[in-house]
């Protein structure tokens, strides 16, 4: 009798627990996509954790919708993304995804600086307008509605280039694998042939000094929402004039005028940032391995490993912090000038040293930021601009303070009379960041470096 009463009591508790859970849970009946005139529904659903038939707790609904909104926004196909829920009854909801698509087809004139950055052109090259590149750029960033891209670039001016590339739609049913192919051809008359005192040295000429042909293919695999892997194969052929080889016999090593090779590289990226345009919260990890030359008959045999760890975190009352750790090692010690890259290339630099390129085989870099959000708004311009892809203007402004530390190891520092390699580099300062349309980020920084140089630096970039 006692056992029977205990069983009935236990069953009664389970019924109460189940009823309580049922009262606090919701079932996703359907997911509606609104505003996707070109983008296929599957591309949006692919980036959502919520699926039809999922059960979730009411208390977590807002957080789950916001997490999926950020994932969809990070596809970089939409100007704005909104997620909402509609109750069908006490136990079922419909999820509404409202997107505003970007302008996918772009045909624009090209005009930009040939130098590494605006600051080098302004301070070191006398802001000479002859050092510019101009032409036509055409891109469709959603050609078939599958987030595939066709790009054509034809440029003249300081460095003539022509490039064509296509990134296919997802190759498999799980929409996780992509394939890209492309070709690039470029020539130089005036060109960098070496560095001295950590500054580029140019040879100016009216004759062609360098010619480069590049074919590439990239296989990308996405696992889940946050992991990406890339396998890239490149064939490169570069020819330089005899004059360049005499001025710098180490350009290709041993006074050679030609460099032909295949390159294979592998990259792994784990990206769980809230916003790839301008992250305020989350984590990113990347690892890269690159092999130049796949056989003994090729003109280079070199291997490099690099990795980056970045962390972004909110503090309090609109304050945010982040740090980034990056390191690179490459082998052998003696490398061609063209492939010996330390700090100063792309965004791998200690801020305050924007005017320097510090060559070396290996380096380490720590970058830190503390920022305050002044405002973050979306302005409605529909009364002034009728093109829907531009009538919503997002603008965010941040006051930014930063401090960086770096070190470059150069085993042959005498070749370029470096003054910063094999020494600790420090730099810091304050600045203003503006984030707006189409992933455009403008930065205005006032920096001081380890040797006491103080300058105002400006940078405009489109981040992904």
Describe the structure.
This protein is mainly beta. Helix content is 11%, strand content 51%. The chain has helices spanning 2-23, 41-46, 61-73, 118-123, 242-247; strands at 25-34, 55-57, 78-87, 92-101, 105-113, 132-140, 149-157, 161-167, 177-188, 191-196, 199-203, 210-223, 227-240, 258-271, 282-292, 302-314, 319-331, 362-380, 392-409, 424-436, 440-449, 454-462. It has a 16-stranded antiparallel sheet. A 4-stranded mixed sheet has the order 2-1-4-3. A hairpin with a 4-residue loop joins strand 3 (78-87) and strand 4. Residues 16-21 have low confidence and may be disordered.
Helix-strand layout with pairing:
Layout: H1 2-23, E1 25-34, H2 41-46, E2 55-57, H3 61-73, E3 78-87, E4 92-101, E5 105-113, H4 118-123, E6 132-140, E7 149-157, E8 161-167, E9 177-188, E10 191-196, E11 199-203, E12 210-223, E13 227-240, H5 242-247, E14 258-271, E15 282-292, E16 302-314, E17 319-331, E18 362-380, E19 392-409, E20 424-436, E21 440-449, E22 454-462
Parallel strand pairs: 1-4
Antiparallel strand pairs: 1-2, 3-4, 5-6, 6-7, 7-8, 8-9, 9-12, 10-11, 12-13, 13-14, 14-15, 15-16, 16-17, 17-18, 18-19, 19-20, 20-21, 21-22
Low-confidence segments, given as residue ranges, are 16-21
- Radius of gyration (CA) equals 27 Å
Q: Strand order within the widest sheet?
A: 5-6-7-8-9-12-13-14-15-16-17-18-19-20-21-22
SS class: mainly beta
Counted beta strands: 22
What's the order of the H and E elements?
A: HEHEHEEEHEEEEEEEEHEEEEEEEEE
- Measured by DSSP, the beta-strand proportion falls in over 45%
Biggest beta sheet attributes: 16 strands, antiparallel
Averaged pLDDT, please?
A: 90
